[in-house]
Amino acid sequence: CIFFACAGVSAKSVAQITLSEQNASLEKIVAKIKKQSGFLFWYESGLLRKAAPITVKLKNASISEIMDACLKNQPLTYSIVDQTVVITEAAVRHPAAPKQTDIRGKVVDDQGAPLIGATVRVKNSTRVAITDANGSFQLSAVSPADVLVVSYTGYLALEVPAGNGQALTIALKQDAASLSDIVVVGYGTKRKAELTGSVAVIDMKSKEQQTLTNASQALYGASGLWVNQSGAKPGNDGTTIRIRGVNTLSNANPLVLLDGVEYSLSEIDPNNIETITVLKDASAAIYGSKSSNGVILITSKTGKKGTPQVEYRSNFAIQQATYLPDVVTDPIQYMEMRNQAEINSGKLPTGVSYTPAQIAEYRSGLGTDNDVYPASDWFDIVFRNGFVQQHNLRASGGGDAVTYTMAGGYMDQKGLFIANDDAKRYSFDLKVDAQLSPRLKVGGSLVGNVRNFNEVGYGTQTVLSVVMRGLPIMSDYKQGELYGSSWLATPGRGNYENPRMEVEQGLTRRNIQDFLTRVTVQYKLPINITYDANLGYRKRDTWSKDYIPLMRTINNKTGEIRNFNFGTPPRVKEWDGNEAYYTLSHRLSWQAKIAAHHSLSAMVGQDYWYYDLKNFQGYKQGFFDNTLTDLNASTSQLNAQVTGSSSIEKLASFYSRLAYDFKDKYLLEATFRYDGSSRFAPGNQWSFFPSFLAGWRIDKEDFFGEGKAISLLKLRASYGKLGNQAVALYSYLNNVSTSGFQYSFGGVETGGAAVTSLSDRNIRWETTASYNIGLDMAAFSGKLDLSADVFKKRTSGILRPIGIPSQVGGLNGPVTNIGVVDNTGYEVSAGYRDQFGNVSVGINASASYVRNKVVDLRDEQIISGRFITKEGYPIQSYYLLQDDGYYQSQDEINNGVNYGTTSKLRPGYIKYVNQNGDKVINGDDRIITGSSIPKYNYSFGTMTEYKGFRLETQFQGVLGVDVYPTANLAVPFNNGAGVTKEWATDAWTESNRNAGLPLLTTFTDASENFQNSTFWLQNASYLRLKNIQLSYKLPQRLIDFARIKRVELYLSGQNLLTFSRFKSWDPELTITRNDLYEYPTMKSFTLGLNANF
Amino acid sequence: CQNLETLPEDRYAQETFWRSANAAYGGLVGCYSTLISRGLYGEDVVLLEEATSPNAYNYNNVDGWSNIALGTHNASNTNAIAARWRAAYTMIGRCNALIEGIDGNVELTPDAIVKMKAEARFLRALSYHVLTIYFNDVPLITATPDLDQVTAPRKPRAQVVDFILGELDAIAAILPPAYTVATEKGRATSGAAQALKARILLFEASPLFTGTGDAARWRRAADAAKAVMDLNRYSLFPNYRALFSLANEYNAESIFDIQFQGPNVGSSFDVTLRQYNTCAPVRELIEAYRMKDGQPRSSSTVTDPGNFYSNMDPRFYQTVVYPGATFMGATVSNTRFVNTGYTFKKYSVYDAGAASTAETSLGERQSGINYMLFRYADVLLMYAEAKNELNELTPDVWNATIRAIRQRAGFTDAAALTYPAGAGKAEFTDIIRYERRIEFAGEGFYYNDIRRWKTAETVLNATIRKYDNTPIIVRKFEPARNYLWPVPQIELERNPNLTQNPGGY
Predict the structure, then answer these.
(1) CA-CA distance, B7 to A730, in Å (whole number)?
(2) Class assignment of domain A3-172?
(3) Which of B11, B139, B495 sits opposite A738 (nearest CB)?
(4) CATH code for the structural domain at A182-316
(5) How far apart are CA A258 and CA A448, in angstroms?
(6) pLDDT above 90 covers what percent of chain B?
């Protein structure tokens, strides 16, 4: 049973109501009473239509006189509780009423916090109670068979049996689609129903049962966003976020603000976040010069008035790699394949790497001595299961004058590598707000995040490349600091390695501290003007240490010991970056309602932002042994190095917002921002960014009528100019660098200097014109909501380095404003939720499409490796030869137009299409194809709830994106690496001419097969079960005695299933990357607990 | 509005950079430092270029160098080619910037400015020489780098060569004959300018650019080489092995060195030769060594069928490490150097004796022995070659060049030292080409020599073998295509006015 509530502005204590109506509907009369009296009305949808037309004439009557008159001889009755008039059907008397009792209870939200002012009504009666400041209510003379209907604005109504008089605790769930929700927007808040921009809101409550180790992971599934996590290295597992495509050739990251101050998603504990708002269209324009990639607003938790709340959340998860390559680990098979590949690549059978004698020896030695004749599976050896635990404890509360919240968080993560792979996070969140006087409110906050993580000595990427070139013939022998290697020499491996050694030896430490301190002041001036000031100081400190000890391997057959990393070790490098961000933001805002229907608001503000970066680095080598790692422990000054630098950046801004709405029906808004940045030369520093937004609440129009199924139908439109200043500092200056140009004369090293790039003094902001039209709809009392947007973003004056030929001094080209790029697309999202008896269900889905096109590049093209950026095509399209299957015969080679030297080619090699019909296949035969930006992002999910159990699933995927990895294991025998099993089963042979792979060759020696061609371009679309969770809320009666408000246990899994045609590695990798050396994406199995006291 | 301007604290602005003497000198060092980039002579590039010749083998195709050896290189698959083009123009750009910018200096004397400019002009000429011998016609740019140079087309090689020859004549009169202050050693001298001129003229006279028999060109080449000899400034260092050692840098044979200094600005020679074996001498080179009587293995009377490595040209033992030899204190096994069984020891700190820990831990860019880009033996052989082409290889010329070089190498047998009376031009050509191949084995000169002589189509169309004669791979060289390198694809893309070399690249 659903209720429709109409809230008046303010109820007059003694209402004097005047009515004069002829055959009027009850709806009309109720509306008039409401307007005159300010009384609240509660009634079932459609109920008023049961009343016959009413004729009434009363002057200065009381509410009860009016109601009595109107409902006389009607099948309806009413009651008045406080300021609420409840209209119900006239009760039917039951002949034998059961025994009645008084009942008491409490209404809380799903966190256990009391809901003040909730309505508790006895179904089919007029008796209503409203909850007090503690959320408590009391109803007298209720029969056990009665049903209580509990409702609260913004929450889903609930029916509960009245029971036998035991105290009830009734928990309401928030209505996700509630139109009265407050949404954080640029420099302010808005009711959801009033939004005119395209905004995605992530309520962190809905992410409570997931293992989020980085706040940016919460953005998966948000409509219009491409979230890509390439590598889940503990402590360093942020995602790349692209909002509505890629606008630019430079920095495409959105601006992230925490409580109004520029911040990083990696530096905040997800538990400390209340909501995340993503501004996708011109609504971001109020952030001017940094807004063109979209803006992400993080709102941290604040204290709320009421009894103290204590909240504890914790979870434990086991983590595993989602994908690992399937490598040939049989040493004999490996050696034979390598030999065959070399022969197929042009080597003579006598010139191959492993001689028949060596293979025979190995074959007979297998199983006798694992150190000399190993069969190593290096992924097995160097990886283990990861483990993560997180805890967060928060207390909050407050009274009329002061509210507070304080929280501490801890995360401890052990990664997949067997050593040197872990992370810890300590987070703090302290906030106090005080109403000093009716006009003056002040607040202070400190949000802190300490992120310490360790990484393998040579760094994740290098060590992964080492693991991916681990061979089955390499021994996993280990004795002290001495590691086994191979007695067999392999081309491409000048150095005898052991992947385990490079995982275990050496270390990389990163300690990152980020603290945001804020002071806010709010002062209410006369005539409804409010002054807000926000002073923010963010301090970021990044300390790092890389230590590489002397590593040695042993040839287990000969006993020969070899220095692996000859040259400089043991060596240590420490560096520290010291960053300070100062933000001063203050503004005046005013709002007024004129003549009942006209709402006006205005805001002017000014921001100043100052960023100061200092860093230095020390490097030393020459330790006695591997035990000490501090700089001071080094015994030598040989090659000791110290480097450092500093920079300052400033941004000054003026902004304003004007908004007007008529009858909540026509919503208009304009924002203006004027930004000045130190990134440009004087004269080009200032720029203006306006925006205009409009909304039309169609459902509020008279022709829509009342009591309809559709509660919201809104059309939105926006236009704005957004900026991007993402150009390196001092790009407009021609700089002479002094580091890296040393030369020696007479045996003495001398420092040099050189210009390394040209510059363009006239560079200016990139500007994006953003157009958006959207439609929001809510229907069936909020059960269904739907939102759709179409957009176009045109970015002009794109800043990019021009590629210039080397003949211009071998210099890098200048960064300059060139080019226009369009992103056009659409987004749709919908949700439906309903309740059938004890079962509630919900589904949600969203999809977005974006098409990227370079409109103007001054007729130039940027070719960079296998990518091209060219007019008429998406940014960073692939530029490749087109493959044409394989050569099936020598005749075909002899008579064909070929790539490379004809004599080198043989059947089974890849054939390319001669696009221009000339006599050679070369760079001129490339075609533009593929996409490095996904065309579609989509997600969908389900929710089912039965009593205390709740099962949720969320799927997420991308479509229309291609990757092109090469290097170890992506290609066969790359420079001494091994090979994946598919090359054993699916390579071209005389008898397998339609194989998936060409003739087995080495990558290094058969470049003809590994030209940048469409053959190797792979579709990286995927669909993944991002999250599945089963939670169970302990029955209230079990925990009440312990004075616990809520206990919820859950099991959840992240990334458990992935569907993709790309099999070499997790498809969620850095798309434009050309190798697979990224930390594996992980799947997690989580057990968690959320409790409120 | 607030003052928003901020200025960098870690770099200079170009406009004011040249004002101080120290900065101007730093700018000059920046020009020199290009010499040790991977595009020119840095790290192991000299060795990789050696492995592109019939002397040695590189198995792992570093920077695509093996593509060149196998004839499979094209405009886009070989970084070595793109890097050379880029490094040469990087040096040219820095030199051009110095030549124009240093006039803004307020501290240096006019003489010093002229001298520093002359050094930059030398380096610029060297870069253009490098460009012309690999790419033939190239854009000729002589002004400070600027966007208006983006579209400059290739200029005929003759024009470029004329320009640099004029430059070299001019600066030979400005540059000092030598530097006596220790920290100036290694800077360009007048002798270096003259030696470069001789090398340019040798290339211009050679079959690669001139076909056969342009006597006037050979005359100019001979004169230029003779001019260096007539300086009486240079002489052969008495010990061939010791010539390539740290102790004997800046000896009388060295005309212009690439300066290496460990541990920051060194080469990668030691680690490459000791460990990586990415420049592995092949059996063909070993067989090419004549015997100690100066005669080929097949016709010599001192050949010992039972002991392959005995009685060879003394330079063999001073250049190559072979199975059975003593190296770094141990006897070399068949598999010590896996790719062919051999390695070079020229330009490395290692020899028969055991190496110290410091020596065995030398890594990439940490080796300090200077690489002689021009040494006097080269000038002598240039002279001999030009004179022979002019049919003027007289006993005097022989004694001053080939005999002197062989004597220094350790030949004592008269049959190797005496002027081969009655030998014809062709026979002398064989001797001179042998002499260049062996004298400079492991020094990265041979690839250019076989192109210059246009013999690459024969000697690079061959199977190469390991120490035990097992064939490794068959190399190809297509004369219509491979004598010149392709202009890198990326340059063609960025400057549509550039044209590609012939041969279907």
Answers:
(1) 7
(2) mainly beta
(3) B11
(4) 2.170.130.10
(5) 12
(6) 85
